[in-house]
Specification:
With 323 residues, the protein is an alpha+beta fold. The chain is built from 13 helices and seven strands. It has two domains: 180 residues, Sandwich (Jelly Rolls); 106 residues, Homeodomain-like (Arc Repressor Mutant, subunit A, Orthogonal Bundle).
Length: 323
């Protein structure tokens, strides 16, 4: 079965860092935290939920809480994984655990594209602050606060689909609805119930939800149910009938239908594929903080530079001016 990977956060912070080179990284998931995967060099294939990404140097993406993911076919890479403890942000943003981030540097709308350089800078600054010998936890926390504010304010699913700023009253309604879905996906959940809770008409809330997510409510609800079902399928010994019941599908045939829609295969085929990934085992090299700057300091320095500045840096390096 696929296991939960435990994260040890840096004392006094809401962050953890792992830097590694990976050929294969077995399927796993994390509870109550986000993972930001940032490729500093080389390339790798990433499978996360029903997404498949080929990551190259400079790419970053967010793994949402509890999403099963793995790395395959890594080549000559250096990867940083930042883990953010969502529990530490719940008092600042009551809906943060219910958000679904769509933050992929290679798949953004025009609004998000403007914020990708800032995201890279923040990620890199967090890494550099952590790995230096006298890291400042207060500075780390300030950087992580800025990183989370950027994710919440620009890279949640609602901003991905709309590509614009959203009025606060609409945003709060969206948050309330996603909370209902995340807490009650295993129950019978009708749009009419949500309309009553929001004191608006069913037609209006249907149009509102389509505008916010680019999906009708049933499609969205089933997408969340099937992601919950995938984790149960891969990480527990529950039968399809049990999973179907736990995830709110009224009949097991609907879980098969939605697996085919979102994952392109049956549950048994999907499980067998991930068992194959797990059987390969981890083929990774993990680096300690003390060796990262020595081995990869230049790589980190180049990450945020444009082409002209990179040429100048390399010229200085060859001229002997690199410290």
């Amino acid at each position: 079965m696929i296991e939960k990977e435990t994260i040890n956060f840096i004392e006094g912070t809401a962050i953890a860092l792992s830097m590694y080179s990976a050929r294969e990284y077995v399927p796993h998931y994390h509870a109550d935290c986000l993972e930001i995967i940032f490729v500093l060099d080389g390339e790798a294939d990433l499978l996360s939920s029903y997404d498949f990404f080929h990551l190259k140097k400079g790419d970053f993406t967010v793994i949402n809480e509890s999403d099963v993911h793995c790395i395959q076919n890594g080549r000559d890479n250096l990867i940083a994984s930042l883990y953010i403890d969502l529990n530490e942000f719940s008092h600042q943003h009551e809906y943060v655990k219910y958000l679904y981030f769509m933050c992929e540097s290679f798949n953004v709308n025009s609004m998000q594209e403007k914020h990708c350089p800032e995201m890279r800078r923040l990620i890199t600054n967090v890494i550099l602050e952590i790995i230096k010998g006298d890291s400042d936890t207060e500075r780390i926390n300030r950087l992580v606060q800025r990183l989370m504010a950027l994710l919440i304010g620009k890279f949640d699913m609602v901003f991905y689909h709309n590509g614009r700023e959203i009025p606060e009253n609409q945003l709060q309604r969206y948050y309330r609805i996603i909370k209902e879905v995340e807490e009650r996906y295993g129950e019978k959940l009708e749009l009419e119930d949500l309309a009553q809770r929001e004191y608006i008409g069913t037609t209006y809330i249907s149009q509102f939800w389509k505008k916010m997510t680019n999906m009708n409510f049933t499609e969205y609800l089933n997408s969340r149910r099937i992601e919950k079902a995938e984790r149960m399928l891969l990480s527990t010994g529950k039968s399809i009938n049990e999973i179907s019941l736990n995830c709110g599908f009224s009949d097991p045939k609907y879980i098969y239908k939605n697996f085919k829609k979102w994952y392109g295969q049956t549950p048994s085929q999907h499980k067998k594929k991930y068992e194959g990934y797990k059987a390969k085992g981890n083929r990774i090299i993990t680096y300690g903080y003390d060796e990262i700057l020595d081995k990869f300091g230049r790589t980190l320095a180049y990450v945020n530079l444009d082409e002209e500045d990179t040429k100048l840096m390399r010229y200085a390096e060859h001229a002997g001016d690199w410290p």
